[in-house]
Each structure stands twice: as C-alpha cells, then as structure tokens.
Amino acid sequence: MAKKAKGKDYFGLPKIISIILAIIPVTAWLFGIITRFLEGKIVAGIIRIFGGWLIWVVDLILVILRGRIWRLLNC
Question: What is the mean pLDDT of the chain?
C-alpha cells in the first residue's frame, strides 16, 4: 500500500506553495491525480483524470481553507 506523505496534500509542500499550485488549473488537476494514485486510491485517481476540471474550484477552496484536496471517494 502506498504511504501518504506526512503533512498536507501536494506532496507535503508548505501550504502557501500548495495554494499557488492549486490556483493553476493544470497543476491542480495533475497533482490531484498523482496525489490520489500515491494514496493507493485508483478509482478516485481515474475519476480525477476525467472529472478533475469540474472539481478544481472545490479543490482550490479546500486547499486554501484546510490545506487538503477534496476526497470525493475514499475507497
């Protein structure tokens, strides 16, 4: 099983860097996919491949408020 990096999403980077990366749609989409696959959540990663653009705004808000991306599926 994949280990989750200690700290917050986007590979344990500081919150301000995660916010900057989340503002850019392409990096938010790509890093959201990678993060979910690294967590071992294959189905959630596949959903983010096709629907990641739709949940970008939610991810952006949650990264700003909590420092974590939205967990649509936790399976």
Answer: 79
